[in-house]
Structures are given as C-alpha cells and as structure tokens.
C-alpha cells in the first residue's frame, strides 16, 4: 500500500513538481543518450574504416608504383599473387574490374552479378577511395566495404575492395547502449526519488499554511504558522501570521470602539431622556430650571450629532465619497480662528495657547484646500492637545515654511504617547486611553483629510514628554511662481 502511494501521486503541486523534474531530466537523458549512441557508433565505424582505408591506401600505392609499371597490361595473371599480398585479417579482399565484376576474391566465393554499390561507383568514376555500409544481398549480414581504385597510366585498371563484417562491432555497440540505458534508468529512478523529496519539501509547508488558513477562515485567529520555512514560503508564513495578528487587533479595536461608543452614546441619551421625562411630567414650576433642562437636551443632542458626523465623515473619506471645495486658504488666519474657537475650553484648564508665526511667513503662507476640512484637522489636533495636557501648561501652535510646503506644528506638554501606541494611534477606532472618551476616529479622519490635500500628518512623542503633531501641506502654486 505504501509503495502504491509512493508511485501514484494525486493531482496537485507535488505531482506537478515531480513530473516537471522527471520530464526535464528524462528529456536531457534522452538527448544525451541519442548523442552518445551516434558518437560511439561513429567512433567504432570510423575506427574500422580507418583500418581498412590505411590498408587500401598502402595497397593502391604499391600497385601503382611497382605492378602497373612493370607489367603494363599483362598483370591479370598476377591477381592471385596480388590477392595474397593484399590480404587483411578479418576482411574479405576482392579485386573488381571497372564494370564491377569480381575477378578474384580472397574467400573464393563467386559473385555472379556485378557489384554496383556507391563505393565501387565512386572509385571507378571519381578515382578516389570511398566506403559503403549496408547489408550483403546474399547473407543479409551488415558489412562495411572500402573500395580504392588501382591506377595504371592515370586510368582505373582495377578496383580493390575490402569488405569486413560489422556484427561484432554492432554487438559491442548494442551492449554499450544497453548498459547506458540501464545507467540512465537508474539515474531516472534516483531523480524520481529526489524529486518526490523536493516536492514534499515544498508541498508540506504549503499544506501547513493551507490548514492554518482554513482554521483562520473559520475564526481561529489564534492559530499561527511556523515561520522557519525558507525564502518565499517563510515570507508567506510571516505575512499570514501578521494578517491574523492584525485581524485580532482590528477585532479588539472594534470591540473597544463599540464599548466606547456605547458609553459615549449612553451618556447624552441618559441626560436627554432624564430631562425629557422631567419636562413631560409638568412638575417644574421654575422657568430657570426648565431652561437649564432644555439647554442640557440641546447640548447633548449636539454632542450626539457630532459623534454621528464623525462616523459619517470617516466612512465617506474611506470610500472617497467626500467632496472637497478647494480654494486659496490663508493658514495664519485659519489658525487664529481655530485657536479662538477652542480658547474657552483651554481656559477651563488654565492652559495658555500660543500662535508662533515664522518671520518670513507672516501673510505669505497659503495653500489650496477646503478651509472647513482643514479647520476640522487643526481643531482636532488642538483639542487633543488640550485634552491630554495638564493644568497650567502651554500649547504652542507654530506656522513655518518648509521645502515647497507649509508646516503647522501643535506642541503640547502633556502625558505624551509611548512607542507602542505611537505606531497605532492613527488607526481607526484606536484609543490610547479609552477612559477619556471619544470614538478613536479623530486622528484617522484628520490623516485622511490631510492626505486628500496631498499633505502629510505625523506625530512625534515620548511618554510624559509631550507630543508634537506636524501637518505638512503644499504651498499654493501661485505663491511658488511669485517666489
């Protein structure tokens, strides 16, 4: 059973990897096998041919130098003697005339039909040595024949033909090729085993990640994947774990938000309901007390509207549905209005608000944007600074120029933000201190508004050392051209 599972791979990445490895190696081995077969066949056949050619060349040279000169046309009687001189081990020596008829043969075997193979034709017509490989018509045996012209007075008188069997050579070739096939088969089996191991090393991490992903899909975000895998799989495991961690954090933030918003909604609703029931009872004879109750209802209603507007603003910004009415905005005037608007709240904590304008920035710093939305950003930043600053402290609002940008800094002397919270404080629903109220959307909304103005909002803080909120906005193009 185990062996069958080893040989039969289910469809999937494992089988694809194994098949790809196997096919690549198989094709490589096949090409090498074909090249090897052709090379070794050429080597053996060339060795036989060189042996026959060397003998034929020496024989033809001997005949031309001595026999053709001494005996002229009366040398046919010398053919038996020449045959003995020309004999070669493991080869049949034949002497043919120009027509291809065998005049005499070393074996004495009579050939009735003229020999018209390519080696003989080339030797007669082109007067040069040639070889032919093929089967003997009489026996079907595979042979190699080398024919060389025997020249006399510049003409072909006879053709010397050496014929040798290739059976032994072919048997050696067959044995060598079979051995190479055995070796190739062994290599392929080894490659198959190794490729299965490699496939498992890839598929096992993927299976582990898949199982973990399935559990996460069912809500088990406490599951984690081993991050010890190498290369891309390790990065994938880290990313998946980070995703689960972020989902857990996001869910926790949502839970905190629901708890916080429930508290934020309950407080004004309780006040509204209490005073509404009191007014409806008709037992209030004091006009001043009635007026106080109505003022509380109005104040708490405005507070509820503010909460709802904050949620709607964030939703619109995330969906790119909010419309910015951009125009030239004088940042100095905008900051003065904003500070004046929150001054009463700062006075309640005896906090001093200072506006510091750089010497080269008076009346010069303008940007293109939505004035109301930018005021919303600065109100939020200054309001946060007041909320988290101690009594009798100072909050500085600085306006200066940067590299093609306007820079607004809100610097407080408050409790600051620790390093862990600083990286998350602009996330939606995140609250550094949920007990102080709010939805946790103020900074997230401000960040989205600043980004919509092609600017950047950043926070710099240390615990118990105060916080600096910095807004960078592009300077209006007209101002840049004038500069």
From TrEMBL:
GO terms for molecular function: ATP binding; phosphorelay sensor kinase activity. Its EC number is 2.7.13.3. It is an enzyme of class 2 (transferase). PANTHER family: SENSOR HISTIDINE KINASE CPXA. It catalyses: ATP + protein L-histidine = ADP + protein N-phospho-L-histidine. One of its GO terms (cellular component) is plasma membrane. This is histidine kinase. It comes from Paenibacillus aquistagni.
């Amino acid at each position: 059973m185990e062996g069958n599972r080893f040989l039969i791979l289910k469809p999937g990445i494992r089988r694809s990897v194994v098949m790809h490895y196997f096919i690549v190696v198989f094709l490589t081995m096949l090409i090498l096998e074909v090249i090897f077969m052709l090379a070794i066949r050429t080597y053996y056949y060339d060795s036989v041919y060189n042996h026959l050619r060397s003998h034929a060349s020496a024989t033809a040279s001997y005949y031309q130098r001595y026999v053709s000169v001494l005996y002229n046309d009366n040398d046919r009687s010398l053919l038996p003697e020449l045959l003995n001189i020309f004999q070669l081990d493991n080869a049949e020596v034949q002497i043919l005339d120009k027509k291809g008829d065998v005049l005499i043969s070393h074996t004495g075997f009579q050939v009735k039909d003229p020999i018209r193979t390519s080696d003989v034709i080339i030797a007669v017509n082109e007067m040069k040595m040639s070889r032919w490989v093929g089967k003997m018509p009489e026996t079907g045996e595979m042979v190699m024949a080398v024919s060389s012209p025997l020249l006399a007075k510049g003409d072909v008188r006879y053709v010397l033909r050496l014929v040798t069997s290739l059976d032994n050579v072919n048997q050696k070739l067959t044995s060598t090729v079979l051995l190479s096939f055995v070796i190739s088969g062994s290599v392929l089996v080894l490659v198959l085993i190794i490729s299965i191991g490699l496939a498992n090393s890839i598929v096992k991490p993927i299976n582990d990640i898949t199982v973990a992903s399935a559990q996460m899909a069912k809500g088990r975000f406490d599951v984690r994947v081993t991050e010890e895998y190498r290369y891309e799989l390790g990065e994938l495991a880290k990313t998946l774990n980070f995703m689960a961690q972020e989902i857990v954090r996001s869910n926790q933030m949502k839970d905190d938000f629901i708890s916080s918003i429930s508290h934020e909604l309950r407080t004004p609703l309780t006040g509204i309901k209490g005073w509404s029931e009191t007014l409806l009872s008709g037992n209030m004879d004091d006009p001043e007390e009635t007026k106080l109750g109505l003022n509380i209802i109005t104040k708490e209603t405005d507070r509820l509207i503010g909460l709802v507007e904050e949620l709607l603003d964030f939703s619109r910004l995330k969906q790119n549905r909010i419309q910015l009415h951009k125009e030239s905005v004088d940042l100095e005037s905008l900051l003065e209005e904003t500070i004046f608007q929150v001054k009463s709240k700062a006075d309640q904590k005896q906090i001093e608000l200072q506006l510091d304008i750089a010497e080269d920035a008076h009346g010069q710093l303008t940007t293109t944007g939505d004035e109301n939305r930018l005021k919303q950003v600065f109100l939020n930043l200054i309001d946060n600074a007041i909320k988290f600053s101690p009594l009798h402290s100072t909050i500085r609002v600085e306006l200066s120029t940067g590299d093609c940008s306007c820079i607004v800094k809100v610097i407080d002397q408050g409790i600051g933000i620790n390093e862990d919270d600083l990286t998350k404080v602009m996330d939606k629903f995140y609250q550094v201190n949920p007990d102080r109220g709010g939805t946790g959307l103020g900074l997230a909304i401000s960040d989205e508004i600043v980004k919509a103005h092609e600017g950047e909002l950043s926070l710099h803080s240390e615990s118990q050392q105060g916080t600096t909120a910095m807004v960078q906005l592009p300077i209006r193009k007209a101002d840049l051209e004038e500069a």
